[in-house]
Predict the 3D structure of the following.
Amino acid sequence: MTPADQTALAAALEKMAAARVLCVGDVMLDRFVYGDVSRISPEAPIPVFSTGEHISMLGGAGNVARGAAGLGAAVHFLSVIGKDEAGAEVSGLLSELSGAEFEVFTDKSRKTSIKTRYIASGQQMMRADDETVAPLAKDLRARLLAAAEAALEQCKVMILADYAKGVLADGVAGDLIKLARTRGVTVIVDPQGFDYSAYGGAQLITPNRKELGEASGLPVDSDTDIAAAARHLIAAHKIDRVLATRSADGMTLIGDGVEVRHFPAHAREVFDVSGAGDTVAATLGVALAAGLNENQAVQLANIAAGIVVGKVGTAVAYSGDVAAALLGNQPRSGGDKVKTLEATLGQVREWRAQGAKIGLASGCFDLLHPGHLAIIRKAKSACGRLLIGINSDASTRRLKGAERPIQNEAARAEVIASLEAVDMVVIFAEDTPEALIGAIKPDVFVKGADYAVDDLPEAAIIKGYGGEILLAKLEDGYSTTATINSMNGETD
């Protein structure tokens, strides 16, 4: 891909916000339990796992929806959960997705799927699954199809995320494909199992190498093998295209009577392959719904997959991540570090999974001066990853007066983000960062030493979860207010 192609793709990312996609499939709750292994059990030759932090994320089709929302699309999500604690947790996580609407139907006879992974020293030690695998009852099936039919009127692409738990079983996938095709909606399938007849009529399916071999019954060792296996599925099941994901060998796009196209892998370092297939389906869906062509959609999906395998856990690639990867060898500002709160929380989870200590400092940062830099340097010295919370324009006016801020929030955020010591910037609307702290729960919160710890409105929250408050010595003679007064010829 040439630099011009990369720039064009980065510009095309802006179209993602206009995309509307429907996602239907098996939702799961992915739980990650992080801990330590330092000894072998005296009861049996097995490691003793000492549990630490627990993190829950949307998995399965839920992670596809999360990935699409992370790229800026409006997502309508349909699935089925059990009437249990895990189902309530899934609903809560879905409600946090920006720009997403969801209908998750409750089935009292089934368990919400939970996959719990135990991780020590960056390695997965074990996975425990707790779930019900069964097709939908007749009434629930009818309700799901009716909801999909209504949602398809507003969407250009439908993604079916099949994890063989039952939501798409017994012909539901086929019924959904027929509903979509009669409305001119493109169907993308992240498939499961050996029998792809259930996906007949879909425009695009995205099996990995192993799945392609199992479904076709053919070898998949070489480029020629991959193409032959894909063409077998296309002919057998009337599928328009197959995008075979091949891990380190990238991706291959095959269509009947169309030249085979290979896309090299983009992963720099692989930490965890969880969610890579979800990311491919989500990115393809959003890109095609945004009006990008097939080549562009696959290129973006390939880059996004390379990003998520470099993260820990069921990760997603946000539009800023993809833009940064595309423009990685080109000059750019710090703007790609400025994130929404949702994107920030996702990144913080990944940093924590890698063992990083999280720091947070906050303020208006209207005109950057040595006093600000002193606080940022002190904060960075106390943590591995530093986040800066910046007051929005409205909250700055409330705090500093009608003439402030001098620079708008976007400009202030970009200036702070350009500093090497700063890893991420998030803008918050409240007058104090209490809500931001409650969401992020930084290991250390840094404030200027003109405050006493007990006087900080944030102190109770930080102490409540066991965080640390660090007071940074201020540089004498520096303040934004004094600078503005001096520029105006005013003195104290």
